[in-house]
Amino acid sequence: MRPVKLGRRLRAAMLCTAIVAGLALPAAASADTTGGGTSGASVTVGTAVHVTGKLVAVVDVSFTCDPFLIYDWQTGTMVESTAGHLSGSTVTLAQAQGRTVVSAFGEFGEEENDAVVCDGATLHTRPVSIMTRTVPWKSGAAIASARVRVFSDGFESQDSGDSGTTVVKLGK
Predict the structure, then answer these.
(1) CATH architecture group of domain 35-171
(2) All structural domains of the chain with their residue ranges
(3) CB within 8 A of 115, min separation 6: which ones?
(4) Strand partners for 64
């Protein structure tokens, strides 16, 4: 009989603990139906992700934003405004492939004059391209999350929202 080394058992126990913790965190985050840190915007990520040429994944991000309260200099009062501009928004995509985790992010809302209506009801959808920098994307399950930031016309007020972690399916 071969002697069992304590070092291997310890490494195996640590690895199992890390895997369980790694699987439990996304499950707990995806159980939150209100998304992550939300302040005036509601964000969701589409569950079907289109992959082009194994290098680019296109994730659809949908969001609504609440009206802004801004100061009207002519009347000296706070008024409601629905005019907003999308800026500094991101999507992160991660996929486990054997012992490798492919992870990348894409930005959106950086286009000049990306105006949105913030009335709490109008649904806006933006396709976001995410290019892998290491290993190609493969068809199958992945994890995605999105963060949206919308500013009022004069950048006096901001709505933001986080989708939380969402399981998505990568495909052609």
Answers:
(1) Sandwich (2.60)
(2) 1-31, 35-171
(3) 83, 84, 85, 86
(4) 42
Residue from 166, 171, 158, 169 nearest 44 by CA: 166
3-state secondary structure (DSSP) of residue 1: coil
State if pTM tops 0.85: no
Q: How many CA atoms lie within 13 A of 107 on its CB side?
A: 5
DSSP conformation letters of 108-146: ES-STT-EEE-SSS--EEEEEEEE-SSSPP-SEEEEEEE
| Segment 79-126, tens digit of pLDDT | 999 999 998 899 999 999 989 999 999 999 877 678 999 999 999 999
